[in-house]
Amino acid sequence: MDISEFANLIRNLPVKRHSVTIKKKNWVNAFGLSTPKEVRELFGEASEIEISRNDIFNTESIKKKIYMTILWGYPKGMRNNYHESIFKQINEIGELLERTREINDWATHTANVNYAGLRLSTYSKLLYFNHSQINNNNAIILDSTIINCINKKVFTNFNNPRQITYSNASEYYPDYLITLKGIAQQNNVAEDQIELFLFLLGNKIK
Prior knowledge:
Blueprint: H1 7-11, E1 19-23, H2 28-31, H3 37-43, E2 48-52, H4 53-57, H5 62-73, H6 82-88, H7 90-98, E3 102-103, H8 106-111, H9 120-129, E4 133-134, E5 137-138, H10 144-151, H11 169-187, H12 191-200
Parallel strand pairs: 3-4
Antiparallel strand pairs: 1-2, 4-5
Helix pairs in contact: 5-9, 11-12
């Protein structure tokens, strides 16, 4: 099946309005008694909030953007308590993002990104909301849901010689971006519209 069959649907996906509901109770234990002011500002007195992609894109504070990305990407919390490691290094990760708008050598770059808890699923989200580019291709989210969709091989657009896995996803990330860019240009859609389509519907289509 070619993804072009769904081009009209993909083209009309309001990707920037894609929002997630985050309940404060899911993150209370993550912050304990020292909830960062950026997170306090987000919740205020509310027990739950909604964060859209547009909200994150429009946030100027890089530190607040990281917190929002984590909450948006993992509304029920991160497995293995990865957030603890990420939050301890948030200033360093923020500095990295501020100087990482363009990446011309992905392998060398990732070899030097050694922050505990920061896997590709999370890092690709941060790069996406940072408007970063890898080899002149827009950074787009690649997480386990997208990987599972690609591996189902429902869409012939993603036929790879080797199976992409969570473990080797970083190696294939630049190829993933090239593929998305090609599909987007062929169908007059945006790369992140394809990503959202795969995330929402890709695993439910036969």
